[in-house]
Structures
1.
Amino acid sequence: MSTTTQARRNTRPQDSSVLHTYETLIVGAGFAGLGSAIRLRQAGIRDIVILERGNAVGGTWRDNQYPGAACDIPSNLYSYSFAQNPDWSRAYSGSREILSYVEGLVRQYELAPLIRFGQDVIELSFDKASRRWLAKTAVGQTYGARTVVMAQGPLSNASFPDMPGIGSYEGHKIHSARWDHGYDFAGKRVAVIGTGASAIQIIPELVKQAGFVKVFQRTPGWVLPRPDYGTPNWMRALFRRAPAAQSALRQALYTAHESMATGLIWRTPASRLLEQVASLHLHSQVPDAWMRRQLTPDYRIGCKRVLVSNDYYPALRQPNAKLITWPIATLSPRGIRTVEGVEHQADCIVFATGFDVSKTGTPFPIHGLGGRLLSEDWRHGAQAYRSVSVAGYPNLFFTFGPNSGPGHNSALVYMESQIDYIVQGVRLVIEQDLKWLDVHEGAQQRYNAAIQRRLAGTNWNSGCKSWYLTEDGFNSSMYPGFATQYRLQMRRLPRGDYSLVR
Amino acid sequence: MQLDLDRMRDKIKASQWALADIDWDAPGRELVTNDPDLYPKLKAFMADLMWIEHVGARGFAAMAKKAPNDTLREIYTYFHAEEQRHANAEMALMQRWGMLDGEGLPEPNINIRLVVEWLDAYADDMPLSVLGSVIPMLEIALDGALCKFLLETVKDPICHAAFEKINADEARHLGVDFHVLEMLGHSPVYRQTLQMAGKLIDPRLLIGILAYLPLLNRMRDNLVELGLKEERLYEAIRKYRRVGGTPGGLRNPWFQLISRHGGWMVNRRNRLYHVPVDALVRLTGKIPPRLLPQIPSWVHELTWKPTA
């Protein structure tokens, strides 16, 4: 450690007493952080700072720029209702277009002055005496704020999986969430590990570019067809002239996705129907019975994330592609050795192995009242009140907190209602000049007992292993209900369930 | 035999090997190729052995779908691949000894073809109790009789190196097989018997039995031709009875049926059994290959090449 850093660390506590105290500090300049800033400003909160660890906005959509990256939810629904875009080029836009939309939000709402780039928060602690949160960043700076919005994103961290022999592999390694745009796939032998939501978007693009693509699958997913289309010009013109028409389409898409909940979240005749749609989709695209067997899941639809694609199965059938379902024994210097004894040699391995989703810990230490540590409180699974507040951590608000994930509808619909709830909380603290706003422990426990009771009957908890669950099978990720139910519970912050300390 | 399945799974994962671990071009092949007496018989034997491993692999694939818990499902998924590895390694030996015509698969005999067709069509519909009781019988025959016999007959050091690895895998397979055999016997005997009776009139299973019996007889004939003492097969059946004859195993009517059937099969003097089954062997030999459906695509996954 250099002496300057040492000196800075030693002096920080003194520094913090002279810090500017923002009304709100937002961690992350992705969809959630920027949306929060927009709504907070509209509600009269002006003194905001956004700490972003990267050098650009967009979060997950900035990072996930692999070939074929797109959203599984139609763009007209995967956008903010208060900032609709009449110019989406397709029903399901690609990640570049989504990123442009996010960048457009920054311009339209003049958010740039609020953002501090290169500020990776490494610790957050509540200072009771000065009744504010102190955020330390990796470059040694400290920010103070009355309230904090956690918008660091659930899918923001990705790393190579801990597979045997991964260190010995001498070829090129690429993680789907950190794409290497400089690598030329032409003529290369490429291995893709993983067949989740990212993989099934990457694979069709790689099959077009690479010499040969081997896809290593552990568990197949249910794949539904994607009703994609290029937006006709008249539609864009209509949306520009009559935004109400776009709102109507949004509402229709919302309702259609809501109806999917009946089959995806709970086991109902609709689940069977969706499974049959997926099976038909598979049958129509894969003629070989053994390959269909390899691609057919043996768990209920909805238990793991449902995949949506029209070109994944056809890509696997191309002469330069092969699906491999043998378990991986180890990586070797030249490729992947599977248990059937064969070394599948590859010039490049693409790891589409997902994200490091934190279900028990926190992205950095968060100290609440009395020095309590959130990762300790969440040791057995994360819990919050209405997914936003955690008892003992006053004036701190989570976006995409525990049990806020949808399995059937747009994450942005959920996010928007979280943000509007958070705005109520922040306004309460600022306008009433509260020392703190802290949810009652009892209210949080009652809320979670009910959530867990309801989760027990869902497809997520029906026995498969998924990233929604902790190692012990505890579900701290998903919200067991319709988006409409979630929005209703988020409409009003119930003051009775919080202590308002003046 | 009670096992800690989680530990077994970890052990399986830690004991992986690949075809590339063996030097298939090392000296010693002439110990086989220069023996004109042994060569044609060994070629037929290796083809049978390789196919039976492959058939076993497909059996494990079906069992993975029926496994009562995640650990056992994962173990069976590994076993499926490991049996395939054995078939691949045996093919690599055949390649070493110049027994493969071109790069293709050894020609399966008609009884193998019929069993493959049956597995492809119905194995996934069979309950764990049937597959879980038959598989240990086949594996113990493979492990106890065939492989030992092969190693006594063939002096090629690479053959020994390969089978050392194969046998180590098979020992783990047998451990799990007999654990499951015991586990399967734990429900009330009357219920198991009723379920078995119900299954035995399932035409899909009957077709399977009709495909399976002549395969065993044909293979036994091939083995005896190569010089295998029938006593070896008796030993294997006795071992199946001894190891499987735990309290749970004895309560499993499939175990009872299969161990009894094993006795009939190895006893050449049991005419009541062998006259009709040998007739079946001859009858199936008359089936024109063009009547058989196309070989299922999973068969084409077999390869003798260590790298791909």
2.
Amino acid sequence: MTPDLQCTNLTKKFGETTAVDNVSFSVPAGSFFSILGPSGCGKTTIMRMIAGFLEPSSGDIQIKGNSVLNVPPNKRHVNMVFQHLALFPMMNIADNIGYGLRRAGMHKKDIGFKVDEALERIGLPGIGQRRVNELSGGQKQRVAIARCMVLEPDVLLLDEPLGALDLKLREHMKVELKSLQAAFDTTFVYITHDQSEALVMSDNIAVMNAGRFEQVGSAQDLYYRPDTAFVAGFVGDSNRWSGKVIKQDGSNTLVQTTSGLTLRGATQGRALSEGDTIDAFVRPEAIRIAHNAQDLASFDNQISGTVTSILFNGAASRVMVRDVAGHEEVAVNLPQSGEFANLTKGAPVHIGWASDQANCFGAGVA
Amino acid sequence: MHREAKLGLILLLTPFLLWLSLLIIIPHIDLLLVSLRERVGVGEYKISLGNYLTFFTEPLYMMTFLRTAVMSIFATLLTLLIGFPVAYYIAKMAKGRTQSALFLLCLVPFWVSELVRTFGWMILLRETGIISNLLQSLGLAQGPVEMLYNDAAIMVGLVYTSMLFMVVPLVTTLESLPDEVVEAGYDLGGSGLSVLREIVIPHAMPGIVSGSIVVFMLCLGNYLTPTMLGGKESLWFTELIYSQFIVRFNWELGAAFGFLLLILSSVIVWGMLRLTGQSLEKTMG
């Protein structure tokens, strides 16, 4: 089956700077694809090239197997939900949703019917006569999606549309967007700098940095099996240490950090040899905390230390632990099962993690 | 404390109230009174509507009045037609330094007095002027061409003097239109023309109306440009007012004319607001 959207060796240069550098990817029909990256990484540029507002310097964009390079934006079967939604304030809701249909020359009666159907679908029936500024943020969001979806586009592009919403609504809209995508059964391409948006909603995620895709994969791939140091650092939280490989023995790597902490890590098949400078990443949630050293017997990395601070944040609470020798401070997730409820600053604790949870990447690669 | 606040308010309002009453309300009340009296003998007056009656019975006055109104409306439309693309370019297409440079260019003509500016047009358009000479040297015209003293010359002058007052409000409203909204118009299948009609113009409506009101009033009340560029061939209503007051010493009729002009401009502005569905608060606020 031809993918709904396929980009091949897409490159965009603005003068001397390369905003998008030889990016290729394809999005299968009906899937939710996200491009995740820090601001300024070029993700918006890709989006604008797909929508047709920017001409690629080289490479090809195909929608349903046909190149759209010479098709103007108003002729592409691609619609976009803009960052600030860009609803037309001079029209009411029904006219906003019907705008594209009017432009397509549809009969007035059919437009009314389709608009009502779309409003029904987004769960806001009967608001057709309201003005844009009478709606709440979440309602506007849904209207903006409905305005695109009535045109039955091959691909719907979403440019950080949740950025302007407050936190509670954003959490709610994540679930809602995913179910809208399933309801409309359309291919969504979503760009964001917020990893939780990408992880929750997407079938596939591309992590982008400095104009290139670092890794494309499912949320689990990116989280558990990052390909590069950038992905390991960007997706999820990590303790990050720079250091040197002091002993390489098969899959077992012994690392000494610049501050002198020795730990065992895993290379996941990446070629590293003794003396290489590396970055090691250990997620706070992969580290076990215990009152007794015996509880950690199964881990090949064990450190004894003291609590230097407690960062209470409900379910995402952390403690900072400094090892006895005072080399490093390690962030550790605090289990909320109650046994560490009276942990105080300065208390002695033991922490440990399995060596395959410590991802090592050669420095300079990222 | 309460008394101090009150004093402050009075002090702040005083200049405005003085300006309003001394320069606008009192002269207009006097003008109204003058327009409503008729001289029956030396130093003897009686109240009558005779001056207004004269206006309606004398075709020259009536025709000049209508002509001035129609040409002012036409000049306003022409200014809008030329000013809109200029404003759109400045607000939406030009970026950074070009934008401020272009905006400044619109202002440059106003560094020179209106009189000098109008003389500039005379130098260009008169029989022995630059354009006439150019046409002759190119062989496009046999003899000298007179381009002054007609309606077209007045129109050129009026549009030129009014341009800034149209461009400024248009630039302000167009700048407040997010690029995203225009792009959304294209993205959803709109063509350039339909985006202009359904998105850009409705958004710019307050600017269009406020610019038009200002330009229309400036044209209607303009004296210098029609007199200098139109000459005797193209009478403007302000010239009639001037001649009643200064040449004929008929202050009564002049005052009546002045009042009629005030009523005319109010009616046309009101009609314009009704027609476009705008309110004065929306366009001026």
